[in-house]
Amino acid sequence: MATIFYAMLMSLDGYVAGPQQEFGLPIPQAELHRHFNQLMRQTSVSLYGRHMYEVMRYWDSPEREQDADEVEIDFAHAWRETPKLVFSTTLREVGPNARLVSSDAMAVVRSLKSDSDGQISVAGPTLAAELARSGLIDEYRLYMHPIVLGGGKPYFQQGLSLGLKPLGNESLPQGVTLLRYAPAS
């Protein structure tokens, strides 16, 4: 059985994007980026909602590598090599190594979790909230950046109530602290 984790960079005040839905968080520099490259390489399948998938499709195109540095190129390769499920009722198609899921999202994820091995990542707070409400997330990884955005899109969706137990923490480059939690039940 696979484990599902939800991981995103966020501000100290709990936001993954700023008030205008802009990211607003500093771009990971090489050392921190390497951490995320390794995380992507350890991921057997990535789950995306429409918005996060559209943001991450930046890495789909090998032409983007022309202006990229070595660590970005490494991430692009890892991202393209990782299978993706994209949950959307508005998208009509997705790119290479991705499959579109437009109905029965929780049933698809339950089946994937029980029939797979390894780590499944969740990107995006809306999809993560749906999975959390269904009890499908095994670990929350909060990458706390030392910045305050003052509002925006929260890591945890409003109205989502969870009991969590700490699994550990780690200091990372750029002043980022990784906080890891599991559901308490």
TrEMBL record:
It comes from the Bacteria. Gene3D superfamilies: Dihydrofolate Reductase, subunit A (3.40.430.10). Residues 3-177 form the Bacterial bifunctional deaminase-reductase C-terminal domain. Pfam families: RibD_C (PF01872). InterPro entries: DHFR-like_dom_sf (IPR024072), RibDG_C (IPR002734), Riboflavin_Biosynth_HTPR (IPR050765). Transmembrane segments: none annotated. This is Dihydrofolate reductase family protein. The lineage of its organism: Bacteria, Pseudomonadati, Pseudomonadota, Alphaproteobacteria, Hyphomicrobiales.
